[in-house]
Specification:
single chain, 591 residues, alpha+beta, Beta-lactamase, five-stranded antiparallel beta sheet, 20 helices, 19 strands
């Protein structure tokens, strides 16, 4: 029988194949076990974490889920809920010199990139952009850009120009009420205005969900800024300021300082100026002329001095006459801008704005009593307002000598802010109660009680006298039919090196309306107005500041619920005999 040989190569190949298959299965099982072990470990950790949190009550974050849905900084709105400042997310243009891992930070030259950016943003400062691009330091080129502009920048092909999406503060009304609102810097801190005053409130949990409500009415604010800007342009003034105040609550309905700035795009020059500009008397656009700058406000102080004298009993007869000839006190002489005759009574003194007679009235009153009145009106301290920018008055300390008492009575020798004047006039016409000004909208229960400065009878007489000034005196151009405006002009020379600068005036008109039942005080001030064709080549308040009131009041009256009514007015019949017929029939010269 023949033996059959079996090839050994076949059997050995099968054994090798079996070994490979077994090893593959073993590796697969091990991998599966590793994966399963990882899942078990993760699941166990998660379960332990859940049990721990459930037992301890510890939260993974301090706030609630709703915190993610509210802005980082709360809104600011006007008294009617109109947004004045809010937060939203927007693209910014950021220069990142490390975007390119190798070589230069820019593909094109800095000049070419700067020119490309200027084609997209024509208002950019080319020199500043070039300085940023050449410095090699990261930083903003522009904040808050539109998506379409971001696409245009992207088309420049520069990886170093990036577009981070950031929370941005936005002011829907632009530059309107900029000095009231202020702005938020790149670190998220409020600066200058109510952004700074409300800083802690706006970032608090409560402030983020409930807007901060201001007393400002943006419609009234817009009208005031518009008319001040017009007057500033017509008179070629360096600046202007104004405030509208509720006489019974102290709430500020509008507060304007011009020139202004745009809080959406604050420039370094808005807040800081050069030494050369400062020497020329310039101030930054961000400087608040209403609450931070102090001025000698001239003849607007005369009704306050007269009211103080009536309160003290040194004036009991408004028909009494004083000499109107210049007063000589040592080497000083007090005189009027023009001759006003031999003598004047109280009504004529205010209508014609006589320094001489007002000084005599103050002299009889005495420095102690006049100073006490001014202190009660807050003239010796910074103005009462929430804004951080509040100027300290130039206030003569100690006992006032005779000459000082006289000059203060007609608004010289003491410098205060226009807001000081507004609060003082509110007390003068509202029955005699002084209250602090506020930019917060007040509930009736929150209105401060204030303190009495003038008797109610003195306030009533003052309302008559202020109305007569507008009807027959230097305030004629402030009159608006049906609105019963009363007020006083003031044109004061600005002090300078070596004395007063005779050709540099602060022109002011302080007013209230309607005088039969005063609701609001309106102050308008112009800094260094010039005599132009629009102002009949006159620089005094009767020709430039008073017309602002005459235009503003008809615009804001109906908004504030005061409709014109020519059938009613404050009764001045008992004072009319104090005014000569020719004065009532003709226009008086304006101060």
């Amino acid at each position: 029988m023949t033996a059959i040989a079996i090839p050994t190569t076949i059997s050995s190949g099968r054994r090798k194949l079996v070994n490979v298959r077994q090893r593959s299965l073993l590796v697969a099982k091990l991998r599966t076990l590793w994966i399963l072990g990882v899942f078990v470990l993760v699941g166990t950790c998660a379960l332990l974490r859940i049990v721990y949190l459930g037992m301890t009550g510890v939260s993974t974050h301090d706030g609630s889920l709703s915190d993610l849905l509210v802005p980082d900084r709360g809104e600011i709105v006007d008294r009617n809920g109109v947004p004045l400042a809010r937060e939203f997310r927007a693209y910014s243009l950021w220069f990142n010199p490390r975007a390119m891992t190798e070589g230069a930070s820019l593909i094109h030259t800095p000049d070419e990139v700067a020119d490309g950016l200027l084609r997209i943003f024509p208002d950019l400062d080319r020199a500043l952009v070039l300085e940023r691009l050449k410095s090699g330091k990261a930083g903003y080129i522009r904040k808050s850009i539109l998506p379409d502009d971001a696409n245009k920048v992207h088309a420049l092909g520069e990886p170093a120009l990036e577009f981070p999406l950031e929370a941005t503060r936005y002011y829907p009304q632009g530059s309107m009420a900029a000095h009231v609102l202020g702005y938020v810097d790149s670190y998220g801190k409020g600066k200058v205005g109510m952004e700074e005053a409300f800083d802690d409130q706006l970032v608090s949990p409560e402030g983020r969900t409930h807007p901060a409500v201001l007393s400002i009415d943006f419609r009234v604010q817009s009208a005031l800024e518009d008319e001040l800007g017009r007057a500033m342009a017509e008179s070629q003034a360096k600046g202007a300021g104004g405030v509208i105040l509720d006489v019974d609550t102290g709430e500020v309905l509008a507060l304007a300082s011009l020139p202004s700035f745009d809080p959406n795009h604050v420039k370094p020059t808005d807040m800081v100026i050069s030494e050369e500009q400062a020497k020329l008397g310039e101030v930054p656009h961000g400087f608040n002329r209403v609450t931070n700058q102090v001025y000698e406000l001239g003849s607007t102080f005369k009704p306050l001095a007269v009211a103080s004298a009536m309160d003290a009993g040194t004036i009991t007869d408004l028909g009494r006459r004083w000499s109107a000839h210049p007063l000589h006190l040592g080497r000083f002489t007090i005189k009027d801008s023009h001759s006003m005759g031999d003598s004047l009574n109280v009504a004529e003194t205010l209508i014609h704005s006589s320094n001489v007679v007002t000084a005599q009235i103050a002299d009889e009153l005495g420095g102690v009593r006049l100073k006490k009145t001014m202190e009660a009106l807050g003239m010796d301290r910074r103005p009462d307002i929430e804004l951080p920018a509040r100027g300290f008055p130039i206030w003569p300390k100690g006992e006032w000598p005779r000459l000082r008492t006289m000059t203060v009575s007609y608004g010289h020798g003491i410098a205060v802010t226009p807001l000081h004047l507004a609060s003082a006039y509110a007390a003068l016409v509202n029955g005699g109660i002084w209250r602090p000004a506020t930019l917060r909208k007040l509930d009736p229960s929150d209105v401060p009680a204030g303190h009495r400065v003038f008797k109610a009878s003195t306030s009533a007489r003052s309302r008559q006298l202020l109305r007569m000034i507008v009807r027959y005196g230097t305030g004629r151009k402030a009159d608006a039919p049906g609105f019963r405006i009363g007020g006083k002009t003031g044109s004061a020379e600005k002090p300078g090196a070596g004395g007063y600068r005779h050709h540099s005036l602060i022109s002011t008109f302080a007013s209230a309306f309607p005088m039969d039942k005063p609701r609001f005080v309106v102050i308008a001030m112009l800094d260094e107005p010039q005599g132009t064709q629009a102002t009949s080549f006159q620089r005094t308040a009767a020709w430039n500041a008073a017309p602002v009131i005459g235009r503003v009041v008809p615009r804001i009256g109906p908004i504030l619920g005061i409709m014109p009514d020519e059938t009613r007015d404050i009764d001045i019949s008992d004072l009319k005999p104090l005014i000569p017929n020719e004065v009532r029939a003709s226009e008086a010269d304006g101060e």
